[in-house]
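Many introductory courses stop at the sequence. We go one step further.
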Amino acid sequence: MTTKTPQRPALGEHGEAVPRPQDEPIFTTLAAHWAAAGRLVPGTTAPEWETLTGRNTDDR
C-alpha cells in the first residue's frame, strides 16, 4: 500500500538523488486502517477535492 503521493526524487547538494526515508511501520498500519474505514490518509489525495477542483487523479 502506498501512503504518499508520488514525488520527484530529492536532489542532494551536488545534484545526486537522495533516497527518501521509508514510512514507519506504525504509520503504514494506521494508514491501512484509515483507508479501510474510508477515511482520508495524510499524504494521499482526497477524491472529493479532486472532483471539486476538476482534477483527474487517474492520469498520474
